[in-house]
Amino acid sequence: MQIKSVNYNQYYKFIILLILFLAAAITTGPVYGFGLFLEPLQNHFDWQKSVIMASLSFGAVGSITTPIIGRILDRSGSKITMTISLLFFSISYLLRPLMTQIWHWYSLSLLQSISYSGTAALPAGRLIGIWFPKHRGRVYGIATMGNNFGGLTIPLFTGFYIAKGEWQTGFLLIGAITLFVSVLSMLFISDTPQISKKENIDSKTNYLSGDTLQQTIKSETFYLIFFSSLLGTFLYSAVLPQMGDHLISLNIDIKMAPIFISMLAGFGMTGKLIFGYFSEKFTARVAMMLSLTGQIIFLIMLSTVKNTNIVPIYLCMFGIFMGGYGALFSLVIQEAFGLKNYGSTVGVIGFSAIIPLFFGPLLSGFSFDYYESYTFSFLTISIFFCFSILLLFLVKLRNDQYPKYPIKPNSNIKPNSNF
Q: CA angle 302-311-32, nearest 5°?
């Protein structure tokens, strides 16, 4: 049967984009505000900061389960994966005000880490690849702007309650908002584009194509991306969660620290748009190399700054390059391996995060406890980023592996796509 045209329901796909944005915001935003909770938790429970930050290492356990979640995504779809993951994430925060022992903190942090990859990180790449194949770079940038929007807003409202001595309320709000997004996911998320009734299209149209997982694992490209991701992930375990505390250690007022973190997140949103566009023009691989280069420069400046008046400038510039990196990881994988087994591929590559998520917080804790600053850990991460760039330089993408547009198998007719 001949394909006339493909014209997806414009309203429905943007509802999905909005949900992805909100899911990214509420699940990644707490990472930006993590450092703001260190002082209150230390004062309330008499726990050392290194003991509290050790919970970030449970992200390594979350990485172990990421391949499983990726497989569930490929088999059961995005709706089930997102809804259940968001539900568990919300529970991990709703129960925190009831904590009395350190093992309570660790248990809830573990639940948060296990559920995180299924909330938005994995489903976003699949859904955007299906619904927005022509402009996936820019649209994925918009979706992942949610990460920074969460970093812009969550430190502000949690910081407001922390300043009032009500850190428990901050945790409750995060949990309640996540629960609401979980309900939205259950109602609207779909892996099947909405086709107009007037359109004539075979139901077997192929929206997902690309390498098998076996082919992916056997390729040299897989291992280059795997280890590059391993080194780049130290950003999320040994830099972002500690940035708020780093600012406080520079004698910046605790009431100003949330505003500075929000600035970092706000410019991260700009970075996602910029680098999303670059990924369409120059490939995501080149854009990611540029993102890492900028992070190295401004992380070193933030590590060695003496004049605190310059800190906002460095934070804004670092935010632009940092934000770009978050939008590019999924796109590099799609460029290299396609969408057919996207969830499983990202899950296996995400397994690389075990090392940075486990050792990153320990490195930061050691740096602060031994040197009374995060300078040592930040400079070490900068070196890791240099090696990550080198590995990406060696990657050879094979962009002809899969079509940009959904087409009927064995059809010579290219559909008119209006995204």
A: 75
